[in-house]
Amino acid sequence: MPAAEFPLPDVGEGLTEAEIVQWRVAIGDEIAVDQVLVEIETAKSLVELPSPFAGTVTGLLVSEGDTVEVGKPIIRVDSDVQVAASTTQPGGSAPVADSVPVSPDLTATPPAAAAAPAPVAQAPVAQTPPAPAQQTPPAPAAATVPAPTAPARPAAGAPAQPVADHATVVGSDESSGAVLVGYGSATTSPSRRKPGARRAAALAAEASRASSADAVAAAEAAADPAEDSISEAVAAQGTRPRKVVSTGTVLAKPPIRKLAKDLDVDLTEVVPTGLAGEVTRDDVIRHAKQASVFRNIETPEWGDVRRETIPVKGVRKAIAKAMTTSKFTAPHVSLFVDVDATRTMEFVKRLKSSPTFAGVKVSPLLVFAKAVIWAVRRNRSVNSTWTDQEIIVHHFVNLGIAAATPRGLIVPNIKDAQDMSLFELAKALEDLTLTARDGKTTPQQMADGTVTITNIGVFGMDTGTPILNPGEVAIIAMGTIKPKPWVVDGEVRSRMVTTIGASFDHRVVDGDVASRFVHDIASVLEEPALLLD
């Protein structure tokens, strides 16, 4: 069995080194293709590296905490099977002659089996969880129902293929971050099921071989609130239902379950408000009392150690370099304005109750982001890049969102945000936030931003003087929205007020342009109907 070494790849943006954060395998482990080997931290993100090999780990060549240069071998594997890596990857191994291609879901196929065609549609092994060995599945449609033990029998006419014991299906979950350029699976097949039909057949099959109580639990677990249940509920009712208290299995998407775990929330105690009785993000945050999410819940003791030394590396090193370069290169100028955001809050409330936005997080940040895009269209120079020889004005908006993560500040951006509808922008904001919180933001997602927004209001702050993201000439901060006295038609009334703070590169943006830009944003927050323009 030949030994193969896996060098540290360039995961993007021309990075030259990365820190080994955590090994996910140990010497002696049997690994499958695309199984996560190690978690590394670059100057921009936390990345999981998948294996291009299937075999046995014989050596971990670097230790956790080590900083490794790109191209240096980090792991050794005894392997008969190897997936061809892209020639653009540093140190990438050439394809092995006569080797059998390995799917991310299957181990190597014996030559005899490989000679026969095996259409995926006839043998959905990758989607088939284990089923009892002594029972025969009634139909391929039932393959989506989880079963407890031995591998399921393939459909008639399809060659048997062993399922990898430790294989990780990369790309089958939107939370997966293991696929890299030149490594891992090339494509994944999207589901083509008809709403409700495939699930109904699967549940019927499950019910035929389980007790009635087990069948009910399986039906609740198989329900997909993000697709069929919500669409069917909307079609049947047309309106958002009242709060539903689930008496069985809690319905919640994986990201919602992770949020609940992070906030130490018991989902069985949360009152769901989703269309199909599923728990939403707002439900979890409401249960956890949102204020505690952004504050120190515990006050730790001082401890015996008088000083702590924290190495400056990874994201913190990148932040320090970027902020220093920006602050002492671009002449910053900042503007502030108070805004009556009462109508924005009413608009957000209407969106939350709309079936169109069911299952998507809607917040004032969504309206703020849309307002910034609208204002950029009216003031193009704020969407520019300064070079020593020229000013490059971008006629598209890659909207950066400053995100506070456990690893530090990062600024991923939404590509071509100017072309998105309000719903599409809401979904993009939600996906970006979840990815950043999970530490899965890639260098590509942080590249090529044109203008940035930051929501310091979630921390209870009224405003601030944000520092420009390097390469950009404008950054806009939204403060907290809270009741304040406000003069309306000559009378003092309680209104929902926020403060907009913005910083600009004065080499590019003059005071009049900056003022008009901030005023345009404020106008939309005061009257969201302007977005209909």
TrEMBL record:
EC identifiers of the protein: 2.3.1.-
Lineage: Bacteria, Bacillati, Actinomycetota, Actinomycetes, Micrococcales
Protein name according to UniProt: Dihydrolipoamide acetyltransferase component of pyruvate dehydrogenase complex
Enzyme class, UniProt record, top EC level: transferase
UniProt xrefs under InterPro entries: 2-oxoacid_DH_actylTfrase, 2-oxoacid_DH_E2_comp, Biotin_lipoyl, CAT-like_dom_sf, E3-bd_dom_sf, PSBD, Single_hybrid_motif
Cofactor dependence: (R)-lipoate
Domain called Lipoyl-binding: residue spans: 3-78
Domain Peripheral subunit-binding (PSBD): 251-288
PANTHER family: DIHYDROLIPOAMIDE ACETYLTRANSFERASE COMPONENT OF PYRUVATE DEHYDROGENASE COMPLEX (PTHR43178), LIPOAMIDE ACYLTRANSFERASE COMPONENT OF BRANCHED-CHAIN ALPHA-KETO ACID DEHYDROGENASE COMPLEX, MITOCHONDRIAL (PTHR43178:SF5)
Positions of region (Disordered): 86-166, 181-200
Xref: Pfam families: 2-oxoacid_dh, Biotin_lipoyl, E3_binding
Feature: compositional bias, Low complexity: 107-126, 141-164
Composition skew (Pro residues), residue ranges: 127-140
Keywords: Acyltransferase, Lipoyl, Transferase
Gene Ontology molecular function: acyltransferase activity
Protein family per UniProt: Belongs to the 2-oxoacid dehydrogenase family.
